[in-house]
């Protein structure tokens, strides 16, 4: 049925909205929907061919109806595809703003999967060796968007645009170190962040480390 | 204009510029977060605020290392204030970016209209230059992404992203009839809510819940503030 595959995409997009991570890119579905749209376009061309440019809808209501259905389906497919990609790219942008390195995480996931596959036997390697949940186009998009974002952020260096959106209450906060983060420089000298130690530091100095999961804020 | 308005104007002059800037920034920030559509970029205000933030940061940098406890305490006060200012500006900018990303093509059209030299209105540009840059580059990126993912394989007549044929416009618009809470800073007289029979009078100090489209003009002139 026309539009059925696109419907699946729309469902997938809806589901993606409530997920924390990005589900794998539906390459097959995308291809199928695009193919459907192309076939429909060809159909339209074949239907219109005998009329040689002088088609009058009122004299041929049946053909006009067929054309209309084809056109509507093409548009619908396009909208579903756009919606699907938009939801995903929005998610990716959100991650960029949140300071998560999407590409690095992808690589880690791939490596883990590759290791697992390697343990089970090398035969499965060929099947899901490349099971990245991003399409190559999306990876490229993430790369370029991060560049764009840092360019925009660069104009507001004093403000730190990706900083916390919680209104600041205290200048200094208590933090506990979850992972070794090495030495950081603050206005009051250098602090060495070793695991399980606790510090009373200026929030602005450690915000980045908190969002990266090195430190935990104690309230 | 009545006696209250006159009094309000006199007292506004007596308040130093810095305090008024903070008030104005807070007002802009609240308005931007509440209003459904993007508001005009407050160029002069932002320049002053950013300049002050920069000066304060320099001051703090100059004075750290000073071991005098009194100076240290003063620095903490300044830094706390600084953090709060930064938060306001950051949150304000992020609210704008969010709206820009939500309605990119609509915003772009409005911005182009507001900077059109031939236009009769002398309104300030809607976006700052860096926001404009961000918007256009982001759209270019998105278009490229869509095109390389699937759009290039579509028939040429269906490749546009701002198509309005078929009864549905592809350009998303903010909901201008969204209800907002607002307070009148000056008496603005009668307000008509478009599309309804409703007409009401807004006096100084009144708080109303109205459609954004009905009071938009007064928010722009500063007679009404969003809360």
Automatic annotation (TrEMBL), chain A:
Intracellular or extracellular location(s): Nucleus
Region: Disordered, residue numbers: 108-136
GINS subunit domain residues: 56-156
Keywords tagged on the record: DNA replication, Nucleus
First-listed, main subcellular location of the protein, grouped into a coarse class: nucleus
Limits of the DNA replication complex GINS protein PSF1 C-terminal domain: 169-218
GO annotation, cellular component aspect: GINS complex
An example Gene Ontology biological process: DNA strand elongation involved in mitotic DNA replication
A Pfam family reported for this protein in Swiss-Prot or TrEMBL: PSF1_C
Role noted for this protein: Required for correct functioning of the GINS complex, a complex that plays an essential role in the initiation of DNA replication, and progression of DNA replication forks. GINS complex seems to bind preferentially to single-stranded DNA. The GINS complex plays an essential role in the initiation of DNA replication.
Subunit structure: Component of the GINS complex.
Family: Belongs to the GINS1/PSF1 family.
Protein name as catalogued: DNA replication complex GINS protein PSF1
Organism field: Pleomassaria siparia CBS 279.74
UniProtKB/TrEMBL annotation, chain B:
One cellular component term from this protein's GO annotations in UniProt: GINS complex
Domain GINS subunit: 58-148
SUPFAM superfamilies in alphabetical order: GINS helical bundle-like (SSF158573), PriA/YqbF domain (SSF160059)
Keyword line: DNA replication, Nucleus
Chief localization: nucleus
Domain DNA replication complex GINS protein SLD5 C-terminal, first and last residues per copy: 174-227
Location(s) in or outside the cell: Nucleus
The keyword Nucleus belongs to this UniProt entry's keyword annotation: yes
Example GO BP: double-strand break repair via break-induced replication
Protein family: Belongs to the GINS4/SLD5 family.
Protein purpose: The GINS complex plays an essential role in the initiation of DNA replication.
Protein name per the record: DNA replication complex GINS protein SLD5
UniProt source species: Pleomassaria siparia CBS 279.74
């Amino acid at each position: 049925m026309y539009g059925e595959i696109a419907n699946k995409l729309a469902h997938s997009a809806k589901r993606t909205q409530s997920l924390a991570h990005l589900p794998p890119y539906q390459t097959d579905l995308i291809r199928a929907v695009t193919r459907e749209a192309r076939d429909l376009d060809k159909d339209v061309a074949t239907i219109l061919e005998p009329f040689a440019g002088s088609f009058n809808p009122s004299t041929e209501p049946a053909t006009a109806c067929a054309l209309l259905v084809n056109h509507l389906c093409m548009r619908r497919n396009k909208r579903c595809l756009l919606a699907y990609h938009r939801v995903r790219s929005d998610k990716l942008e959100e991650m960029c703003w949140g300071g998560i390195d999407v590409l690095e995480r992808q690589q880690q996931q791939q490596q883990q999967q590759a290791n697992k596959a390697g343990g089970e036997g090398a035969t499965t390697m060929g099947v899901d060796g490349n099971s990245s949940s991003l399409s190559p186009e999306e990876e490229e998009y993430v790369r370029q968007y991060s560049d764009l974002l840092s360019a925009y952020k660069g104009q507001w260096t004093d403000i730190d645009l990706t900083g916390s959106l919680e209104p600041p209450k205290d200048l200094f906060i208590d933090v506990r170190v979850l992972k070794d983060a090495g030495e950081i420089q603050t206005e009051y000298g250098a602090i060495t962040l070793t695991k399980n130690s606790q510090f009373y530091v200026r929030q602005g100095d450690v915000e980045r480390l908190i969002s990266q999961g090195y430190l935990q804020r104690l309230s | 204009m009545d006696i209250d308005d006159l009094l309000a104007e006199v007292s506004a002059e007596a308040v130093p510029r810095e305090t008024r800037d903070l008030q104005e920034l807070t007002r802009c920030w609240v308005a931007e977060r509440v209003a459904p559509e993007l508001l005009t970029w407050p160029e002069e205000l932002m320049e002053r605020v950013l300049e002050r933030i920069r000066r304060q940061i320099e001051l703090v940098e100059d004075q750290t290392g000073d071991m005098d406890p009194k100076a240290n305490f003063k620095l903490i006060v300044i830094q706390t204030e600084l953090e709060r200012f930064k938060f306001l500006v950051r949150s304000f900018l992020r609210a704008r970016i969010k709206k820009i990303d939500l309605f990119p093509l609509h915003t772009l059209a409005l911005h182009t209209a507001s900077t059109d030299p031939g236009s009769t209105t002398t309104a300030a540009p809607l976006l700052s230059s860096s926001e404009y840059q961000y918007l256009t580059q982001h759209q270019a990126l998105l278009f490229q992404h869509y095109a390389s993912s699937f759009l290039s394989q579509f028939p040429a007549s269906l490749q546009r992203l701002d198509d309005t044929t078929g009864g549905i416009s592809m350009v998303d618009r903010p909901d201008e009839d969204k209800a907002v809470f607002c307070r009148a800073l000056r008496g603005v007289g009668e307000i008509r809510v478009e599309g309804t029979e409703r007409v009401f009078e807004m006096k100084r100090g009144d708080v109303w819940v109205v459609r954004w489209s009905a009071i938009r003009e007064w928010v722009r002139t500063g007679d009404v503030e969003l809360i």
